[in-house]
Amino acid sequence: MIDENLRRKECEPAEFAYQTARRKVLYELKFEETKHGATGRGREKSRNYYDSNEEPDRFTLNTAKATGKSERHYNATPPGIASCIR
User: Fold this and answer.
1) Which of 10, 30, 34, 60 could serve as 74's disulfide partner, Cβ 3.0–4.6 Å?
2) d(CA 29, CA 75)
3) Would you state the pLDDT for residue 48?
4) CB-based burial of residue 73 (10 Å sphere; 0-12 exposed, 13-18 middle, 19+ buried)?
5) What percent of the chain has pLDDT over 90?
6) In which band, very low, low, confident or very high, does the pLDDT at 65 lie, cut at 50, 70 and 90?
7) Could you tell me the CA-to-CA distances from 14 to 9, 33, 81 in Å, in that order?
8) pTM of model > 0.70
9) d(Cα 33, Cα 47) in Å, to the nearest integer?
10) How far apart are alpha carbons 76 and 82 in whole angstroms?
11) How many CB atoms are closer than 10 A to CB 28?
């Protein structure tokens, strides 16, 4: 449903930002290790969530593939909107 809303061409900027932030919250719940700051600072990346050695796509790439838009389109989303929904 969220991906369908993001695919629409008539989506208003505020709705686009809201739907993108909702998708990011759900994506980070599913793939906790992709959350900003989840790895690094001496911690190794955890791969025990997957059957294969492949890591999940970053949020922007995954969203771009799901909606048919460029990854750059989602990199330009205003920061801070996600904190309004959590």
Assistant:
1) 60
2) 20
3) 52
4) middle
5) 7
6) very high
7) 13, 28, 10
8) no
9) 9
10) 14
11) 17
